[in-house]
Amino acid sequence: MPEVSSDWLTHQWILAGIVSASSRFIPIPFVDDLVRDQCRRFVVSRTLATEGSQTGVSLETLKPYYSSGGGCLGGCLATVAKAPLKLLLFPIRKIVSVVTSVRGVPLEIMRMVLLGRTLRRYITNDEIAIDPAYAAQMRMSFEESFARMDFRVARAAMSDALASVSGWKTDAMESAKRIASKNNTHSDTLETSDDIESGAAKVQEVLDRPEIVKLFAEFDRRFDERMQASLFDQSS
Predict the structure, then answer these.
(1) What whole-number distance in Å separates Cα of residue 209 and Cα of residue 99?
(2) Which domain of life is it from (predicted)?
(3) pTM > 0.70
(4) Which of 110, 231, 108, 88 is nearest to 176 (CA)?
(5) Interior CA angle at 168 toward 167 and 174, to 5°?
């Protein structure tokens, strides 16, 4: 396939982040979880198609890396067991999601970008193994590293960038609803509007700032350290 620039791929990750983040505003139980999973799948699928065609790594192998269920029976059973409680708490969770959207929307976008960026980095450096257990280690290392990062500067800048674009939220919610429909459960495409594209372009400008590049480098360092530690523990 023809060469695709990293800027294009980053733009795809941001689009997925915007659509995923918008699901918090949809007042339907479980839609936000479904949309987040599908957007993560989209990020990984796009990254593999662009960077990983020669690695032999498949989307199925990487399922523990991007899926909230981890791609295992235990994860599916846990999801089913928690469903009644999640349904009961849904009104409270939805109110909290909307109230905390100023913080949550930029964080979700950052999560999608880092998810794709980390996968691309490991593929490019030929450090990824064709093994679901390795993908699970990547997911664990990702979540632990992400939770320990201070994204306040990035959150503020991304919020300002999105505030300058009108209409992105409504359009992104429509895209999220389409993703949540049965016919689009395994779609590898995102339907986006001009407003969503404009919002993604504004966010991409933020990600090019020196302080954000430095933030990415710090995340890389923490992720690599956690991966090395977990792989060492596994081999001991």
Answers:
(1) 28
(2) Bacteria
(3) yes
(4) 108
(5) 100
